[in-house]
């Protein structure tokens, strides 16, 4: 029961929605655009910090008397703008270079963002290494919650009014993102992008501005990552160390699990990632209670689940690189 | 009560098969430790309920409290609460350590009971009396309370890092010790010399690690994101041999280096050679190394726990070079690095194997056609990389003050990549230049900028260099593509 609970709650949890959004963004980068982004956590951080600083420090509701809906929406817009500018700055020097340069620059830039926001000097704005409390960033969204307090849902999916509200917003965003990606990548624009992924020079010889297309892809995926960052912090608090390199790596696991160049792949991958991680963790936990793993602490047993994640990622990418839904022809693994 | 002893946990994990009995005894010992801790609460029923919850739940907040002389502070109460009404209390034991278990992941408020502090001890930052923390992906969240006045003589020394909540409290020991080598109030030139010397040593260590990356990249095309784990492995074996098994230092070093060399060979033999045979694509290989990195890192955490382990090694006396103070162990480490780097240079330019390595780096199919056994070159490269990176890990434990963490290597992996990219991907001498540059920049930047963003400065310079000279300092243009 405990195991099922851990496993199934990931299907509706807002963390899965946040991961799904960021993984869709990563899928736009890598699956459709062939861009090697190893710093999706940096885009998430830009979105999350843009949102939080606007809500908690600029605080339009308090300081300028805005309606909570206006300030909540404007905070999301600020997050989107922050992620776009970040994508633009990253793309400028790297998109003309070979793929692995983008990989190194994005991973380095994500860490620069994390180191910068957690520095003590910026504590009044970013909260330094402690980040920001949940209470300070939740003011507007709590204000506009239409649900009366109480419990919603059933069985393992039950949650309080606030969590349900965040889940509704999160999964709606996921739905919008899925439709957007589906529509975009069957349009002429999307075919050009996929063409760039397959053969950049061929597309260039058709007179297309490859750099500009790549930049649009980078910004689009980055914005989705930023939205994922916002959704991830809404049910909890803003913690700078969440936006570290491992988060990007988990997103890659989720993306490859579902299938990179697919519409639903990243969503299913994100759900399965959390479901399997929590499931394995609680299986190990239960096994531990029944006396397996002699002499190990339960913490150590929990760490084994991450060892499992790493091994799963390796096995997956070697034996089924296209993921659960993917089409092998759609993947270019030789950037 | 996991904090009761990370070291025993390592021991039973390492001696796994043979020492089940010992493990049982240790578990008993842990149980007894928990029992004593429970009675510390003078039989308050609430407290004992909390104790049982702690044992059931893998999630906990923990930390250790030390005063400005680094003496443990005993009997300080910490309360953890959340919005749903959960409340748990912990008290620091004789070694200043505390831990409070919580039932589920989530956001909790950690409050220090100021009244329970001994006389004369105050929080360095009163705002830290009560803070919010989240337990999400890691089961144990370290919470640090810093005491005493901020050290006035060291305005730029890592205040951010030592107050980091998410790092386990002892994690700042190393940083503080490195920082303590800084001269106090001797003016700018003294600080600059000190920082430059530190940076030079750091750069040499980075070079040892980075050459492995660049050789592997040059010969196989793989950017090995699990390279930091090779470095951590060296540190951990060194920790196990010196501290857990108390071997003499020479034996410990020898065992560490042999283990790392074998570990490097094993990478190729067990993983990358079969993948080469399958003709797995470059990006797939890249992601395989990411998976390997996650798996190894958590396996290390499984072995030595989430905290910082202190090595029982003699760090040597501090000696003064001009206005700077350097501990002899760091000097020796730097000397060893220089000798080994010279050895690598000799190997690459003068020996048959070294020349073959450079040939494969240049053009693998041409090298293969002219009779070079590419597989054996790649095997050699992995062995050399394992040896060099393991040595870097061993020496790095000295550099950061005789300590090792499960993610030591991972935390500087990006600096290694920055060094390699700066110098020019695939060029061994470029990696040396890049590493020295990165080492100097990270240390010297702390003179003007907050110390906690010094790595960000190095990575920022990497991006700037890529803007103007994408092939790196010593790289060749055709690789840019």
UniProtKB/TrEMBL annotation, chain A:
CDD domains: TM_PBP1_LivM_like
Major place of residence: membrane
GO terms for MF: branched-chain amino acid transmembrane transporter activity
Mode of membrane association: Multi-pass membrane protein
InterPro entries per record: ABC_transp_permease, LivM-like
Transmembrane parts of this sequence: 6-28, 35-57, 69-89, 165-185, 217-234, 249-278, 290-319
Domain of life the protein comes from: Bacteria
Protein name as catalogued: Branched-chain amino acid transport system permease protein LivM (TC 3.A.1.4.1)
Recorded GO CC terms: plasma membrane
Coiled-coil region(s): none
Keywords: Cell membrane, Membrane, Transmembrane, Transmembrane helix
Keyword hit for Transmembrane helix: yes
Organism: Agrococcus casei LMG 22410
PANTHER family, per database record: HIGH-AFFINITY BRANCHED-CHAIN AMINO ACID TRANSPORT PROTEIN BRAE, HIGH-AFFINITY BRANCHED-CHAIN AMINO ACID TRANSPORT SYSTEM PERMEASE
Keyword tRNA-binding assigned: no
Record's subcellular location: Cell membrane
UniProtKB/TrEMBL annotation, chain B:
Region (Disordered): 41-68, 83-102, 146-183
GO molecular function: transmembrane transporter activity
GO terms for cellular component: plasma membrane
Location within or outside the cell: Cell membrane
Bilayer topology: Multi-pass membrane protein
Keywords assigned: Amino-acid transport, Cell membrane, Membrane, Signal, Transmembrane, Transmembrane helix, Transport
Biased composition (Polar residues): 83-93, 154-169
Entry keyword Nucleotide-binding: no
Signal peptide positions (record): 1-37
Residues passing through the membrane, by range: 199-218, 230-247, 283-304, 324-348, 380-400, 412-441, 453-471
GO biological process: amino acid transport
UniProt record similarity statement: Belongs to the binding-protein-dependent transport system permease family. LivHM subfamily.
Protein name, entry field: High-affinity branched-chain amino acid transport system permease protein LivH (TC 3.A.1.4.1)
Organism field: Agrococcus casei LMG 22410
């Amino acid at each position: 029961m405990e195991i099922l609970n851990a496993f199934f709650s990931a299907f509706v949890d807002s963390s899965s929605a946040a991961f799904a959004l960021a993984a869709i963004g990563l899928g736009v980068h890598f699956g459709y655009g062939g861009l090697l982004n190893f710093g999706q956590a940096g885009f998430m951080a830009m979105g999350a910090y843009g949102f939080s600083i606007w809500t908690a420090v600029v605080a339009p509701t308090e300081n300028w008397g805005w309606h909570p809906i206006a300030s909540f929406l404007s905070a999301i817009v600020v997050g989107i703008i922050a992620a776009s500018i970040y994508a633009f700055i990253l793309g400028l020097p790297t998109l003309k270079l070979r793929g692995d340069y983008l990989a190194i620059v994005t991973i380095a830039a994500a860490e620069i963002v994390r180191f910068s926001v957690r520095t003590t000097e910026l504590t009044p704005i970013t909260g330094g290494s402690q980040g920001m409390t949940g209470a300070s960033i939740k003011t507007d969204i709590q204000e506009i919650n239409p649900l009366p307090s109480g419990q919603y849902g059933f069985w393992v999916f039950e949650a309080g009014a606030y969590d349900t509200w965040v889940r509704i917003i999160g999964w709606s965003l996921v739905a919008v993102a899925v439709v957007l990606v589906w529509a975009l990548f069957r349009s002429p624009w999307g075919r050009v992008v996929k063409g760039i992924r397959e053969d950049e020079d061929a597309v260039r010889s058709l007179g297309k501005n490859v750099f500009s297309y790549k930049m649009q892809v980078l910004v689009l995926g980055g914005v989705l990552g930023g939205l994922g960052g916002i959704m991830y912090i809404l049910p909890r608090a803003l913690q700078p160390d969440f936006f570290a390199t491992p988060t990007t790596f988990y997103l890659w696991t989720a993306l490859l699990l579902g299938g990179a160049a697919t519409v639903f792949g990243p969503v299913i991958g994100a759900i399965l990632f959390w479901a399997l991680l929590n499931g394995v963790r609680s299986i190990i936990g239960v096994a531990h209670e029944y006396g397996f793993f002699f002499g190990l602490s339960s913490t150590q047993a929990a760490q084994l689940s991450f060892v499992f994640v790493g091994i799963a990622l390796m096995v997956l990418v070697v034996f089924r690189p296209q993921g659960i839904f993917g089409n092998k022809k759609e993947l270019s693994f030789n950037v | 009560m996991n904090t009761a002893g990370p070291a025993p946990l390592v021991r039973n994990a390492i001696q796994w098969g043979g020492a089940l009995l010992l493990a049982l005894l240790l578990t008993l010992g842990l149980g007894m430790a928990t029992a004593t801790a429970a009675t510390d609460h003078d039989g308050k029923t609430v407290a004992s309920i909390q104790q049982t919850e702690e044992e059931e739940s893998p999630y906990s907040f923990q930390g250790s409290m030390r005063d400005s002389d680094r003496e443990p502070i005993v009997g300080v109460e910490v309360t953890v609460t959340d919005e749903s009404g959960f409340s748990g209390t912990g008290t620091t034991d004789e070694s200043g350590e505390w831990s409070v278990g919580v039932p589920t992941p989530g956001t909790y408020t950690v409050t220090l009971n100021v009244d329970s502090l001994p006389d004369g001890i105050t929080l360095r930052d009163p705002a830290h009396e009560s803070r919010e923390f989240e337990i999400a992906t890691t089961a144990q969240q370290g919470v640090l309370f810093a005491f005493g006045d901020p050290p006035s003589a060291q305005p730029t020394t890592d205040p951010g890092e030592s107050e980091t909540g998410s790092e386990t409290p002892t994690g700042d020991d190393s940083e503080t010790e490195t920082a303590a080598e800084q001269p106090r109030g001797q003016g700018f030139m003294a600080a600059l010399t000190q920082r430059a010397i530190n940076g030079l040593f750091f750069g040499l260590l980075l070079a040892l690690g980075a050459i492995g990356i660049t050789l592997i990249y040059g010969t196989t095309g793989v950017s090995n994101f699990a390279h930091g784990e090779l470095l951590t492995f060296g540190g951990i074996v060194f920790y196990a041999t010196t501290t857990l098994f108390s071997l003499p230092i020479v034996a410990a070093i020898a065992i560490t280096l042999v283990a790392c060399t074998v570990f490097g060979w094993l990478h190729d033999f067990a993983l990358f050679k079969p993948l080469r045979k399958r003709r797995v694509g470059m990006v797939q290989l890249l992601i395989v190394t990411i998976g390997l990195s996650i798996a190894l890192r958590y396996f290390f955490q499984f072995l030595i726990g989430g905290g910082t382990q202190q090595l029982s090694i003699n760090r040597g006396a501090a000696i003064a070079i001009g206005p700077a103070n350097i501990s002899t162990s760091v000097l020796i480490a730097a000397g060893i690095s220089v000798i080994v780097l010279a050895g690598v240079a000799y190997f690459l330019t003068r020996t048959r194997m070294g020349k073959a390595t450079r040939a494969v780096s240049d053009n693998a199919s041409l090298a293969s056609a002219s009779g070079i056994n590419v597989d054996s070159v790649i095997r050699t490269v992995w062995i050399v990389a394992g040896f060099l990176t393991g040595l870097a890990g061993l020496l790095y434990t000295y550099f950061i003050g005789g300590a090792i963490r499960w993610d030591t290597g991972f935390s500087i992996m990006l600096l290694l990549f920055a060094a390699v990219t700066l110098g020019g991907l695939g060029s061994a001498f470029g990696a040396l230049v890049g590493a020295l540059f990165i080492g100097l920049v990270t240390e010297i930047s702390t003179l003007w900028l907050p110390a906690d963003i010094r790595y960000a400065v190095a990575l920022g310079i990497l991006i700037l260099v890529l803007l103007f000279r994408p092939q790196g300092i010593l790289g060749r243009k055709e690789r840019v593509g």
